[in-house]
Amino acid sequence: MSNTSTPKNANNKLPNQQHAVVINEFGTPDVMNYQDGIDIPTVGDNQVLIKVAYAGINPVDYKTRQGKGWGADNIRKDKFDYDKPAILGFDVAGEVISSKSEQFKVGDKVAALNFAGGCYGEYVAIDAKLLAAVPESITLKQAGALPCAGQTALQFVEFADIKKNDHVVMNAPAGGVGQLVIQLLMAKITEDDIKVTVICSPEKYAKLDQLIDKSKLAGWIDYTKDDSFSDLQADVLLDLVGDDAGVRALSLLKSDGHVCVLPSIWVDKLKEAGSDKNLTIEGFAVTPSGQSMARVLQQVADATLKLHIQRSYPLSEVVKAHSELQKGSTFGKIVLEVTA
Ligand SMILES: NC(=O)c1ccc[n+]([C@@H]2O[C@H](COP(=O)([O-])OP(=O)(O)OC[C@H]3O[C@@H](n4cnc5c(N)ncnc54)[C@H](OP(=O)(O)O)[C@@H]3O)[C@@H](O)[C@H]2O)c1
């Protein structure tokens, strides 16, 4: 992967404009407009221009669209304050069509988690340090589903620092991040003799057969039915839901248990609710990197991890895709098909 081309591309085949999904304000899904005539981004030093094949969608996308969190703060500061539209989208898989990087050349198939946004378009410029090559055995559709969920799952389980013989409870094992986290925990059942209990609906519990050998689980809690959770004296809670669902799960832990909260805005609420138990409660934030992306892709290529794609929508149907993800009951991932 060494050839470097100019961003303008020697063959002049690059168009100047693209279709993309833009927002000019925050709000409900219909603030997103699929438009033609949007400028193709400029390629900076050590960046590549990617022709986007698939863009995964994540809860952080709709939270940003709603005007919440760091994603929205960045858009306010960098775009809306200058009356410019913003292009959402942090997950991408596609082909390099122009490169200012020594590492990646035109024609390389790549994937990345790009917190600068811009992936809901036909073309996006991305820092080479965020990219990883997509192994031949992985389709761009699979690769497009993996950047945020995959990097988060690997880093979150490491962050949790689970010890030998720990009893670990996790909620949302069938969601985008959860599917990968539960598979990583199943490996630890064998390697580190941990016990794993999951919290999910009956529908999702039935579907977990597609991912794991459920006979190895220590237990399942049906959050839709059980009024209160029994005291499991568990060591670790991996909370992928937060809010009241996270608070309710605190009763499962022993008094000095460890709680890792993925939607970290809920850390303070959990700290307050669990103040009688001497718990350690920590929020987590994923750090995007090419190395982390490569590790995820390799584990999927090796078939040690898999991620179900619930549905793919054309980029022009992004409003439907966001509305579906926002229901909060996805089995795996929803992706946008851009130019595949
Ligand atoms: N801090 C970070 O760096 C970071 C990175 C990635 C994601 N996140 C956050 O982590 C969260 C999970 O992300 P995701 O992509 O996995 O979301 P997702 O795919 O939308 O999660 C959907 C899953 O949540 C489950 N669920 C919903 N309510 C539940 C409850 N009360 N108890 C148990 N399960 C419940 C659903 O299963 P049921 O049908 O069984 O309810 C569904 O399978 C999001 O809030 C996201 O923003 C944070």
From TrEMBL:
InterPro entries: ADH-like_N, ER, GroES-like_sf, NAD(P)-bd_dom_sf. SMART domains: PKS_ER. SUPFAM superfamilies: GroES-like, NAD(P)-binding Rossmann-fold domains. It comes from the Bacteria. Pfam families: ADH_N (PF08240), ADH_zinc_N_2 (PF13602). One of its GO terms (molecular function) is NADPH binding. Keywords: NADP, Oxidoreductase. Residues 27-336 form the Enoyl reductase (ER) domain. This is NADP-dependent oxidoreductase. It comes from Psychrobacter frigidicola.
